[in-house]
Every structure is written in C-alpha cells, then in structure tokens.
Amino acid sequence: MPRTTSPLFAALAIAVLLFATFSTAWQLAASQVTVPNTFTDNTVAVAAEVNDNFNSLATGINDNDTRITNLEQAGPQIAWLKDVKSVGTNGGTSVGGSNTRTLNTLQGNPSFVALTNGSTGTNGSANQFILQPGTYEVTGWSVIGKGNYNIKAQAYLYNVSDGQVVTETLGLSRFLNIAQGGFDPQIVVACGGIFEVTSAKTFALYNDIPSASAQASVGLGVAFGNREEVYSMLRLQKLQ
Asked: Which of 158, 164, 181, 236 is the most buried (most CB within 10 A)?
C-alpha cells in the first residue's frame, strides 16, 4: 500500500531540517552534528526516521553542554609567576645588558606552565619557565635600578629554546634621570602582549639596562612587618 505524507510529519520534517541547519552552523566551534535522515518535498516522513534525527540533535546538544560545564568548572587558565624573597632580603645585583629575572613561585593554574632552571619557592633561584603549545596573553612587572642616577630599562620575554626575543611582549622603554644623589633610584618596568607557542618552549623574563650595578639593583627590601618581598611578577593566561 502506498504511503501518503501526513501534514504533521511533513511539518516535523521541515522543523528538523531547519534546526539541523542552524545547529550545524552554530557548532562550528564545538561538537559537529550530523542527522541521519534527509527529507524532501512530497515524500513520506516516517516517525522512526524523524525520531532518529531528533536523537542525533539531542546527543550533539548534550555533548556541547558537557563541554561547557567542564570549561566552567575548570575556571580560567591563569598562572602567576613571581620572584619572592623572605622579608628584608634584597633582590640582588645587575649586569650590563640583559638581566634574567628570578621567577621562583608559581600560583594559579599550573597545567600549562612549569618553573625550571633552579630551585622553587621563597628565595629559590629558578629563572625560566616552560610553556605548553597555545596562545598566551602576558603582563609582567619588575623592579630595577642602578647605583647612580640615570636609569634606562626595558622588559620583555625571551624565548630561550629558540634564542630570540618575543617581540610581541616588548614593554615600555623607561628612562629616569635624577640630578641629585642621596638614594639609589629604582623603577618598575612592564611588559605585555599576546604570543603563540607552537610546541613546548622555555622562556625567561628579561630586563635590559645599559650597565652593571653592585647595588641592590633588582630589588631593595622594604621589610614591612613579616611580609615577603616581591621583585618580579608575570601574569600568564592561556587563551586557547
């Protein structure tokens, strides 16, 4: 016996087709949805086939819901790297040219970054970090100075693995000229930007100054109560 098209099933078929079209477009950045049955005009819409399409859509939607829930529970992928010293401990002296800043403390999400090239924790010597593949946004600050009254400085990230400056992170060019003495000047240099890492690489935070200083030029302890000293900070966020 020939099958006739029910108006209800025809309407359902059109609804499923439209929903699948919009759903597939929306899913480009998430789970792809493919419906098993395609309906055309003036043909019979079988209930089982319509239900199969709805089941496929429901599976894709539930999968995306699970992914979104997992992302929400995981929270933002942010890590802080710091140079932390015990109360009253100075940061150390500087060299002329590029100064590799200590980063001995990791806070936040450690899934994409690891400290290396030295001990970690307060007063540790680690001064490099390994980043996993991804796109990152970085903001950094360091304290630096000299034993005289003219300071020129710039901060940036250095790709140790490839031996090159990460130009996307170049910070402000700082210059301070003090006419009279009486103290050792210190300034804060900053860097920041967005850059891509294609494979696991080792990086460092660099501060450039023209000449060396025997003074406490990379941080002078302030000894406020029992609070630790912090002389460099990096905020890293993995965007994708």
From this structure: 236
Dig out the tokens for 79 from the structure: 């890590």
HEC states along 71-139? Answer: HHHHCCCEEEEEEEECCCCCCCCECCEEEECCCCEEEECCCCEEEECCCCCCCCCCCEEEECCEEEEEE
Residue 75 makes CB contacts below 8 A (sequence gap 6+) with: 109
In which band, very low, low, confident or very high, does the pLDDT at 55 lie, cut at 50, 70 and 90? Answer: confident
* Mean per-residue pLDDT, 55-75: 75
Q: Is the pTM of this model over 0.85?
A: no
Q: Please tell me which residue, 76 or 61, carries the higher pLDDT value.
A: 61
Structure tokens at 199: 């494979």
Distance CA 230, CA 223 (A): 11
The owner of tokens 């302890």 is: 221
pLDDT for residue 184 = 60
Q: Please, which contacts does 37-43 make with residues 24 or more away whose CB atoms are closer than 8 Å? A: 39/13, 39/14, 42/5, 43/5
The predicted-structure confidence for 160-192, as pLDDT tens digits, reads as follows 999 999 999 999 998 877 655 545 677 889 999
Please tell me the total number of residues recorded for the chain in this structure. 240
Which residues are CB-neighbours of 164 under 8 A, at least 6 positions away?
158
Assess contact for 222 and 229: CB atoms under 8 A: yes
Distance, CA of 147 to chain centre:
35
**Residues 230 and 126: beta-carbon distance below 8 Å:** no
List helix spans (H) across the chain.
7-26, 47-74
DSSP tally for the chain: helices H, then strands E: 2, 12
